[in-house]
Design goal:
415 residues, CinA-like_C (chains A, B), globular, Alpha-Beta Plaits, homodimer, 26% strand, five-stranded mixed beta sheet, 3 domains, alpha/beta, Molybdenum Cofactor Biosythetic Enzyme, Chain A, 17 strands
């Protein structure tokens, strides 16, 4: 079966926000065997939305619409649903009750307005109660095509999708199994990988698709297929992925979703009961932010220092001023001293240090923009490397992060 | 004139990546007066791409296509262009030369393969040379509709758009002026704002659109319009925005694009020649990462410590263990001590401290998930506040960040 996602909002079409809802919905639909045929973003314009509904209806069995459900005047999704389904808005008592409960929970001591807009819903709609916001979701059908309307606020959309929409889709539609598996590799380019795996790739059957997803310093390789027989499907992809992992064993770090490179690092450090601290200069907290973004980091991650100003490398981290003087602040020597002293300061088994010039200007150093030194201190010593990652600030930081995780995973996998 | 953006790639439709290219392209097109009618994401499937081209041609004067230009087998955009334009692929010497230069620049000492796929381009295409990657862009026309193909790698796409595509669009099309202005507000909800500005909103003329863009702890209010007369257009929106800023003066921090809350903070601190350091516990580097993501942070931002483990708050920051014992690690008292000691450690005028339980588990504290204390130390003392931001890790961190910036801007605006 096929689905289409329609996201409504001028803010998307003028580039004011990035639409993250579609990716989330697509992933979740895929997980239950629903293939997304197309994602369409349209304006807050009734005529345009109706046209998108008609187009989607031609090829999709399920249309998921997000956005345009707010309490303010620019939100027109509900009225458009009425037009499309030849329906009218009526007041729904259960929505009023739900909003009263919400207000109570958040200790908002105010009465609902007399003509409370959020309680007006199309009379034919099945209401999907929103426990985290005032706008309810809706489920409506026409000519065997299901249309679902969800709020655009990601948090509310996700809860409604998980609690109300996915269970209804599973009941309502027969779906095949869809299976993707993605191998994560660090340190080799797309073309070089393609050359190395050419024989393997040529041996893939028609119904299994390979995709290359390159980004700064890493390439993801995805196999995808679908079938009604789940075990045959998984066996067919898993066995081919095993061969691929073998061919690329020096650059592959594991499968995506099952693992991220931070998961791999966490797993190894937890097994060894070892700990990590960071001293980030040029990356300015971008590494620690990725490590602490996921729950559970506190089992191995102890703490971090960001000595943005050069003097702090001496004052707090104890890097000898003479070392900075002699080799410059962006040097292997300074990076190694930062890493070793970071281990001591935080009493950790490992420490990662970065120092570099992310750009666009040289700052207080003498080194070229894009120069980055990475050092890793471990119980057995210290390793380090110097790079030039080009002259784009964002790319310098991203490449440094990917290289840090690649080097660190290699380091802790050694022993 | 109207444009459509078509992004090609199964990775988008299975939710493996978030499409950020469309937002960038939309914003840049708007800037030069091109309105984006629709954004469509389609699969790596020739039939589907052709269908999307035909549909786009019905309402757009310009169609910008990204993705599917890589050197590997899953990339089919060029062949699809040939089918759509009834054309064939030929080898282009200038592309070969460009790639040789690129290899030389990156000291890649390898010969190009005999049938070098990236040099094959539709014979009728105007080649847009990609100075940052091997896949060239293409510009083709049919029935007065321009089709542009760009690589999906954001960095390469952005350079080609800026250097090759936008200048050609400006030459080729007559465009009106489009103008958006967005007011940033912190600390009040969407409905409450709508009530306060109802009279002002009702007085807006037909051709000026107001949009509300709420997210955790902040709401953006955007006015949009277009006209052939730029000065009338800008005056008409600017004057209304000034009135709105007045009405919302207690919660508005400035206009987006002209300023972010971090820009405002940087501006004030630079003017006063004052400095900032951070002690982030529960936010784990998310605040420092936002501050250092933009160039120029080093003019006011000195450094940061992330004492993730409780002991470090005592060991490195000097928070008395007795204070943690008496009031718990997530307390106003501990947050204030962290902030005051952070100022001393980094020798800064201001320090911001966060301590809290982001969840999903309570960690080593006794406090409820979602409890967060924020303290700001300044030359004149310390302010602090305790919050509960709910039980979703991501939202707790985001709400804390927004609240930190809101409180800190208020603090430095005082004197």
């Amino acid at each position: 079966m096929l689905a289409e996602i329609i996201t409504i909002g001028d803010e998307i079409l003028i580039g004011q926000i990035i639409d993250t809802n579609s990716a989330y919905i697509s992933k979740e639909l895929n997980r239950i065997g629903v293939k997304v045929y197309q994602i369409t973003s349209v304006q807050d314009d009734q005529h345009h939305i109706l046209q998108a509904f008609e187009d989607a209806k031609k090829h999709a069995d399920l249309v998921i619409v997000t956005g345009g459900l707010g309490p303010t005047k620019d939100d027109i999704t509900k009225q458009t649903f009425c037009d499309f389904f030849n329906d009218t808005l009526i007041e729904d008592q259960s929505v009023i009750e739900n909003v009263k409960q919400l207000f109570k929970k958040h200790q908002l001591n105010k009465p609902l307005p007399a003509n409370f807009q959020q309680a007006m819903v199309p009379s034919k709609a099945t209401i999907l109660m929103n426990l985290y916001g005032t706008a309810p979701g809706m489920w409506m059908e026409r000519d065997d095509v299901v249309f679902v309307s969800l709020p655009g606020v990601p948090y509310e959309m996700k809860h409604l999708l998980q609690d109300e929409v996915l269970p209804r889709i599973i009941m309502r539609f027969n779906r095949p199994h869809i299976y993707h598996k993605t191998l994560l590799t660090y340190g080799l380019g797309e073309s070089a990988i393609a050359e190395r795996i050419a024989d393997w790739e040529n041996g893939l059957p028609e119904n299994i698709k390979l995709a290359y997803l390159p980004s700064l310093g890493k390439v993801r390789l995805r196999l995808s297929s679908s079938s009604n027989d789940e075990s045959v499907l998984m066996e067919s992809i898993d066995s081919r992925m095993e061969v691929l992992s073998e061919i690329l064993s020096d650059i592959a770090i594991g499968y995506e979703d099952e693992t991220s490179i931070i998961d791999r690092i966490a797993h190894i450090l937890n097994q060894k009961k070892q700990t990590l601290s960071l001293a980030e200069s040029c990356t300015g907290g971008a590494i620690v932010q990725q490590i602490t973004a996921e729950a559970g980091a506190s089992s191995f991650f102890i703490g971090s220092i960001i000595p943005y100003k050069t003097e702090l490398k001496t004052k707090i981290l104890g890097v000898p001023a003479s070392l900075i003087e002699e080799f410059s602040v962006v040097s292997i020597q300074v990076a190694e001293s930062m890493a070793i002293n970071c281990c001591k300061l935080f009493s950790t088994d490992y420490a990662i240090a970065t120092t570099g010039i992310a750009g666009p200007t040289k700052g207080d150093g003498v080194d070229e923009v894009g120069t980055v030194c990475i050092a890793i201190a471990s119980p057995t010593g210290v390793v380090s490397e110097k790079f030039n990652f080009g002259n784009d600030r964002y790319r310098v930081i991203e490449k440094t992060i990917n290289k840090v995780f690649e080097m660190f995973l290699k380091e802790i996998s050694k022993n």
